[in-house]
Amino acid sequence: MTGKTKDEREIKENILKNHTLEGVITLNKDTFYRIGVNACIAIFTVGVPHPKLHKAKFINFEDDGFEIQKHRGLVETVSAVDKKEILLNVWRGNIESSNDFCVETTVQHDDEWLHSFYYFNDTIPNEKSFEQTISDYLSFELQMVLNNREYLFTGEEPNCQDELEVLIEKIKTEDNSNDN
Questions:
Q1: Inter-residue contact 50 to 141 (CB < 8 Å)
Q2: Residue ranges covered by each domain of the chain
């Protein structure tokens, strides 16, 4: 689906010459629990060349209502049936969804055929989330300064000798306190 190599792009080009890509559904990373594969479902109309302006659906179904439970593996939760119903209704065009779930767009052989390639976050952050982001950044910067890492913000090269001397002094202080 990613088609990063020349051979993969050629395979995808040949597929589109003969078949229409209707869409790709990205599945839960744990769909094949303990196998270590990122699974997806590609849906084609076979034998019909892909029209250049045809819009394919790219659906993010990672939140499918299944979860990993200790000693049981992948287990269906109470929300799984509702999530499947939403998936099917979006696929059939019965309901619309936000683009974090489904993106409809034209596709070419050298594009990635996954939701994450087409998704863009169009949600405008509210004031509270903006303030939280600023607060998180300021906390990070303060922590770096308190740990003698202010050079990250000034663009100046760190003085490793000074840092080494501070570290040695700290170790000596800890050793002396442990001796008492």
A1: no
A2: 6-118, 127-179
Rounded-to-integer distance, Cα 30 and Cα 26, Å? 11
Count of other CB atoms within 10 angstroms of residue 55: 13
Work out whether the CA dihedral 119, 121, 122, 123 comes out positive or negative. positive
Tokens of 43: 């849906």
Give the list of residues 6+ apart from residue 69 with CB closer than 8 angstroms, or none: 75
Cα–Cα dist 11/1, whole Å: 10
Instruction: Report, as an integer, the average pLDDT of 55-80.
Output: 92
Instruction: State whether CATH 3.10.420.10 applies to domain 6-118.
Output: no
pTM above the 0.70 mark?
A: no
pLDDT in tens, 142-158: 898 888 888 787 777 66
In this prediction, residues 62-70 reach a mean pLDDT of: 91
**Cα–chain center distance at 115:** 10
